[in-house]
Amino acid sequence: MTQPPRHSADALAGLSHGFFGRRGGVSEGLYTSLNCGLGSGDARPAVIENRDRVGAAVGARQLLSLHQVHSADVVTVEAPWAPGAGPKADAMVTRERGLGLGILTADCAPILFADREAGVIGAAHAGWKGALTGIAEATVAAMVALGAARERIAAAIGPCIGQKSYEVGPEFEARFLEADGPGAARFFARATPDSRPHFDLAGYVAARLARAGLGLVEVSGLDTAGDAGQFFSFRRTTLAGEGDYGRELAAIVLD
C-alpha cells in the first residue's frame, strides 16, 4: 500500500504520528486525492482506502475519528468503533496502544498531544469556536485524568488556516476580546486601521495551551487556505463557489 506524505512535529519525535495533507490518495475531482472525510460527498470506498493508507502510515491497528461538532467535548477511548460511528465530540485521549486517534480538518487546527512517560496521547479539533470554549484545555484535563502531567505533555498544532488568509469581522474580534480580555487583541492584525481584522488561530491555540501549563507547544506554520496543492480548505472552496471539499487527517498512535 502506498503511504501518503506527512508533516511530522519535532515536539512528538519518536511517536507514530503525522499531519497528512491532500496528496497520496485515490479520490478524484474536488477530493483529489487523500480525502479522509466520510462526511464529504466523495465515494465511500475511496475515503476508506485513503483512511487505510493513513492508518498504515502511522502503524495503527485501527484508525478512529469522531463526529466533530465544534464543541469542547472530549472522549476517553478504551475500545475502537466502526468507521463513521464515532461519538459527537472534538477530542480523544487514550492509554490504549495501537489505536490511531484521528482528527479531520479543512482549515481548523488539528492538535496532537503526548505524555511519553505516562503513556497517554490525545488529539483535538480546534476551530475558532472550540478554541474559544476550551477544547485544548479540556483535552489536557482528560489526559491528566489518565495519569499525564501537564508539564510533561508535548503538543503540536498542525496545518490550519493562516492569519493572512483568515479575514474576520469586527464582531468576531469582539467575541474574543470579551471572553479573554484586551490581551486577545494580539491575535488580530489589520493592514490599515480601517481594514478588517485577520485572526491568528494557531497562535491563539498555542497561547491557550501554554497558559494551561504544557511543557512544549509547537506550531507548524503551514496555511491550509493558502496552499491548494497541499491542503484542502473550507474557506478556499467557499470563496471559489465549489460545492464540497475534502478533509485532511492528523493522527497519533501509542506503539
Q: Could you please say which CATH topology applies here?
A: CNF1/YfiH-like putative cysteine hydrolases
Regions with little confidence, pLDDT below 50 for 5+ residues: none
Tally of alpha and pi helices: 6
SSE class: alpha+beta
InterPro entries: Cu_polyphenol_OxRdtase, Cu_polyphenol_OxRdtase_sf, Cytotoxic_necrot_fac-like_cat
Family: Belongs to the purine nucleoside phosphorylase YfiH/LACC1 family.
GO molecular function: copper ion binding; hydrolase activity; S-methyl-5-thioadenosine phosphorylase activity
Protein name: Purine nucleoside phosphorylase
Strand and helix layout:
Blueprint: E1 6-7, E2 16-20, H1 44-58, E3 62-64, E4 74-77, E5 91-94, E6 99-105, E7 109-115, E8 120-126, H2 128-133, H3 135-145, E9 154-157, H4 170-180, E10 188-189, E11 198-199, H5 201-211, E12 216-219, H6 234-240, E13 248-253
Parallel strand pairs: 3-6, 4-5, 9-12
Antiparallel strand pairs: 1-2, 2-13, 5-8, 6-13, 7-8, 7-9, 10-11
Family: Belongs to the purine nucleoside phosphorylase YfiH/LACC1 family.
Organism: Zavarzinia compransoris
Protein name: Purine nucleoside phosphorylase
What does this entry show, briefly?
It is globular and about 50 Å long. Helix content is 24%, strand content 22%.
